[in-house]
């Protein structure tokens, strides 16, 4: 269990706090992962009493938490640590109440000044808030101070760099915890273990034995209530710049020298340095974009993206991206990495498929006269697990071959922690391993920027796909050109 701390949550009346942060804190508490003394200061623009705030936390836990409230006594023990401060975060004068709530806690319990600042607010406020934290003396701590921020960090390299420079006037790199919640997912963290704790995979994990890799993050939801953000962001910035490239780094990185944060970050950063950059002139060959049209999902009619609330009726925003990527180093030379993500697709699924090369000579054939490849499938969400597709003899047949799956399910017997539980816990204990380093963010933007520019100039078409489908035709052509196909998600 960690030392006592205070956590200031800016944006405590917002969606992220409600859906993810309060439920995660409650799970940590119920799993005895929080210290006896801690203080949560929720900060918002709306007037609320401490009591009203605590009730809002209760509602959020009841609606969204993995672990439910079963006894009132533990709930009271938990919630008494929550207080609320109203503040206009842009106004430096608004911070005095936050300060007195924290200092009151620290002196009452005689605990070290360990402070976490969680910015669950729009990124254009990151610089202002970290500046105001400094001018108010909140950052003068004898213990630690840490800043937790969410993606998107900027909308391109230049804006991300500016934010980074500004927050670094108050916090150093070692004090900045940039959340990419995919890195908090159990099975994303498991990629390293599968690779580096099993002697059967590592020898095969290279261009000699791997034909291609496919990374899918598909969603059935549409833009929902987020058009104001999403119609400017698009899937490239929303999903590819962060989550998909993070999964790519986990699959491609070299074994770290030790299981230490710096060693792991170094290896991940090297992957992005080896990632082949596409010029605006090359984008059309390797990256496709799509936008959903009306369709039927789970038996319900759904509207086209352009007909969604608050979306421009001529919007060129992509809700789908597929790309063929190459990591130009000795391990991965020539191996295509196909990534795709989209809204309103056929299923909600995040998974990684490693497709192995075929046997040098086929002695056996299935009924289509070919031998299917071996696959290692890492399922991340909603099912968590791994399975391997192997070829075996069809029972009773004359050497006919069928594929079978050897399966392991990670979340079948008991629920696994939510991404935010492990990430908040890591921030409290000071483990930055599963947070993104500034160099990862900046290199990812440098890869993304030319693609964005090519699309903004409309150098390549925006393709359309029916809601409930697996993206536009062009996404299938991208693989067919190499003699590959997308494996259906499991
Ligand atoms: C977020 C994106 O980062 O990830 C959303 O902003 C997306 O658009 C979400 O829906 C997907 O996360 P998950 O955990 O549901 O796969």
UniProtKB/TrEMBL annotation:
Domain Glucose-6-phosphate dehydrogenase NAD-binding: 8-190
Keywords of this entry: Carbohydrate metabolism, Glucose metabolism, NADP, Oxidoreductase
Binding residues annotated for NADP(+), in chain numbering: 11-18, 45, 88-89, 151
Domain of life: Bacteria
Binding site for substrate: 181, 185, 219, 238, 343, 348
EC annotation from Swiss-Prot or TrEMBL: 1.1.1.49
GO molecular function, one term: glucose-6-phosphate dehydrogenase activity
Enzyme class: oxidoreductase
Catalysed reactions, as listed in the record: D-glucose 6-phosphate + NADP(+) = 6-phospho-D-glucono-1,5-lactone + NADPH + H(+)
Pfam family for this entry, one: G6PD_N
Pathway: Carbohydrate degradation; pentose phosphate pathway; D-ribulose 5-phosphate from D-glucose 6-phosphate (oxidative stage): step 1/3
Record-linked InterPro entries: G6P_DH, G6P_DH_AS, G6P_DH_C, G6P_DH_NAD-bd, NAD(P)-bd_dom_sf
Domain Glucose-6-phosphate dehydrogenase C-terminal: 193-487
Active site annotation, chain numbering: 243 (proton acceptor)
NCBIfam families: zwf
Family: Belongs to the glucose-6-phosphate dehydrogenase family.
Biological role stated in the UniProt entry: Catalyzes the oxidation of glucose 6-phosphate to 6-phosphogluconolactone.
Name of this chain's protein: Glucose-6-phosphate 1-dehydrogenase
């Amino acid at each position: 269990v960690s030392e006592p701390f205070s956590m200031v949550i800016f944006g405590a009346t917002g969606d992220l706090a409600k859906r993810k942060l309060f439920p995660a804190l409650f799970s940590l508490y119920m799993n005895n992962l929080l210290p006896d003394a801690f203080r949560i200061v929720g900060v918002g623009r709306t007037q609320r009493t401490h009591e009203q705030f605590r009730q809002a936390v209760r509602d959020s836990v009841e609606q969204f938490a993995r672990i439910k409230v079963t006894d009132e006594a533990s709930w009271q023990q938990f919630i008494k640590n929550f207080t609320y401060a109203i503040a206009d975060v842009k106004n430096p004068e608004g911070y005095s109440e936050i300060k007195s709530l924290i200092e009151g806690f620290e002196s009452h319990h005689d605990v070290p000044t360990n402070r976490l600042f969680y910015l669950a607010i729009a990124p254009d406020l990151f610089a202002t808030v970290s500046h105001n934290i400094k001018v108010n003396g909140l950052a003068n701590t004898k213990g630690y101070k840490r800043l937790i921020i969410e993606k998107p960090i900027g909308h391109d390299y230049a804006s991300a760099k500016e934010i980074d420079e500004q927050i670094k006037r108050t916090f150093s790199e070692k004090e900045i915890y940039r959340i990419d919640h995919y890195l908090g997912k159990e099975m994303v963290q498991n990629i390293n273990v599968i690779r580096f704790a099993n002697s059967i995979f590592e020898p095969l994990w290279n261009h000699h034995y791997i034909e291609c890799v496919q990374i899918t993050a598909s969603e059935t939801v549409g833009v929902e209530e987020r058009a104001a953000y999403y119609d400017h962001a698009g899937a490239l910035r929303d999903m590819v710049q962060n989550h998909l490239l993070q999964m790519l780094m986990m699959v491609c990185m070299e074994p770290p020298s030790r299981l230490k944060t710096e060693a792991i970050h170094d290896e991940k950063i090297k992957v992005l340095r080896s990632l082949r950059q596409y010029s605006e002139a090359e984008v059309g060959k390797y990256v496709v974009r799509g936008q959903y049209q009306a369709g039927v999902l789970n038996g319900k009619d759904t509207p086209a993206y352009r007909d969604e609330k608050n979306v421009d009726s001529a919007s060129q925003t992509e809700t789908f991206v597929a790309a063929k990527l190459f990591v130009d180093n000795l391990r991965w030379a020539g191996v295509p990495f196909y990534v795709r993500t989209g809204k309103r697709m056929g299923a909600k699924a995040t998974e990684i498929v490693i497709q192995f090369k075929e046997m040098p000579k086929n002695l056996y054939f299935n009924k289509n006269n070919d031998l299917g490849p071996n696959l290692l499938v890492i399922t991340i969400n909603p099912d968590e697990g791994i399975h391997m597709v192997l070829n075996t003899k069809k029972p009773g047949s004359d050497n006919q071959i069928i594929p079978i799956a050897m399966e392991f399910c990670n979340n079948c017997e008991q629920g696994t922690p939510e991404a935010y539980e492990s990430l908040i816990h890591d921030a409290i204990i000071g483990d930055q391993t599963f947070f993104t380093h500034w160099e990862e963010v900046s290199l990812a933007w440098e890869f993304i920027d030319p693609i964005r520019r090519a699309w903004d100039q409309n150098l390549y078409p925006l393709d359309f796909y029916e809601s409930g489908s697996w993206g536009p035709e062009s996404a299938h052509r991208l693989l067919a050109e190499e003699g590959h196909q997308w494996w259906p998600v499991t």
